[in-house]
Amino acid sequence: MPDGAAPVLDVRGLKTVFRTRGGEVHAVNTVSFHLQKGELLGVVGESGSGKSVTMMSLVGLLPSPPADVRAGQVLLDGVDILKIAPEALRDIRGAKIGFVFQDPMTSLNPVFTVGAQIAEPLIRHMGLTKAQAATRAVELLELVGISDARARLKSYPHQFSGGMRQRVMIAIALACDPDVLIADEPTTALDVTIQAQILELVKELRQKLGMAIIWITHDLGVIAGIADRVIVMYGGQVVEHAPVKELFANPQHPYTRALLKTIPSLTGQRAARLQVIEGQPPIMLAEPNSCPFRARCAYTHDRCHAENPARRPVDARALGHGHDVACHWTATASQPEAAHA
Amino acid sequence: MRDTAARRKLVEVDSLKMYFPIHSGVFRRHTGDIKAVDGISFDIYEGETLGLVGESGCGKSTVGRAMLRLYEPTAGRVTIDGEDVSSLSPEMLRRKRPSMQMVFQDPQACLNPRMTLSAIIGEPLNEHTNWSTDRKLDRIYELMDAVGLNRRFANRFPHEFSGGQRQRIGIARALALNPKFIVCDEPIAALDVSIQAQVVNLLEDLQEKFGLTYLFISHDLSMVRHIADRVAVMYLGRIAELSPRDALYARPLHPYAEALLSAVPEPDPNLEATRSRIILQGDVPSPARPPKGCNFCTRCPKVFDLCRSEKPQLREVEPGRQVACHLYNGINTASGSTAGTEAKEHSQQGAN
Question: Testing the interface with A: which of B196, B266, B300 to mutate, by most A Cβ within 10 A?
């Protein structure tokens, strides 16, 4: 990934708030990241960490009210898409940004054929005729590895298995050759052998089409296999960002460290007892002016309660381009892990 | 805890079948069966955790439910602690219930939203004991302590708790009557990663403390490696392989077990970059129309002619390792050490 080139997508200081009866929930708090051409950015976090809401905010898919995208810039090829009219945004969704959702059964329309659903964005965004769209739909289905594509156009979603439905979703997302593909937990609802098929497909498609992908997941194993860079989210904020190998080899944030230790391994040393992260993820009912992880952190000190840490680089590279972490605590050789265990 | 040979079999399952009838046509005639569980046999030793893994629809949850007679099994025999559960009369079955319990997958759905925590945990005590209210309350508090719930929560309702805490309530309820055997049906599948470890550690602590025996049903192979002593891999209603944990994860024998393990992503980028993965083609066939011969023959990378005509039986091919695969024909326990190499020869013949 070329570091100097202008990013395809540049998100700066995004804030999203939900107005609820219990008060405002700060679901996304000052999230910044960028995406280079041809790159796969992994977004990891637990449920409620704000990873899906962040992506929905980018493309105006959140119902407002209750959601309110309060601050920030989302630059797609240099244009701030938060500022443009809803109608114009609709042209961008589907044409420039493709979406793949977690559950392919609920995101496909059960009363339209698969062919009609793939053709819809082609006719809407690219102005193709029905016949042209059908031809392109066959190409797309073949691209995502569905055999006998022409006959399959007339099938309905219920006639497909879960893995094939997810392939159809990917075909729809790819239909207009988007610059950015956002995949929100696309394999979470699938079995592992089917997940392996989809991951293989995505690797292939990246080589063929060279698009930029944002891949949201809670599965660190999936991230390890496909991502170039990773952002870790907790309590609506980015707590750590690093190239994938660096993140797994040298995690800096106490949450990332704990998360990596808490998952049992398939091949490595089998631990007699699993490491746990005590407590529960927070519900962000106030704008955080302290670290969201403080209640569960093994390294908490006074400053964590008084001040929400900003992201700071851990290496020589500029913020957002190398490894950075939002934590007051600094890992050094003189503070070995064991001292805090 | 690991020495299985010397211990008593607490649970014996013999040729268990669970078919769900399909009715169709105007007269709703019985036209076929969904063969969710199609003749499986295994034993669980006292104090052991048997992991039961497989993909969705392979029948693993049905096995757990049929064993406890939450379903009426179509055929087969389930013996728990010396009693044949599958043929008990309703009254006898009711008396047997305290010794066999279940922890369910969805802690939201398995707790009555209108009952307080103490009513939920106390319900089995109302049903099966004639204790005084005070004694029951003592027991409820004892259970809450055991699973790590604060006693102050006793009068709260399920919606006031997080997923992990709800799962603790479900576990406390299962423990109320001092069971010997607990079926854990995907107890961590609905929980976040950081909460999963908490619940798994709790289950392990309780096992040690009360000498429990678990059937741990899960699709999470990494977690099963952590918690189970032996592991059964199911595919389309049948057991493909049943092996001790370390042996299975080090060298799976059945081609399905091998593919399944290779499909699990590892949280290590360096390993992921070099790992070769077996990508299975296609999807799992419908359990209403399983293929002729071996259930796995439609997707197996090592398939050969015999697989399409004859069902392989689950047989011991190495000490303690049972596999249902024609690749291991003619291998018996005596030649266990050479089984691996012979199997490779067989598989090459199969590929030709």
Answer: B266
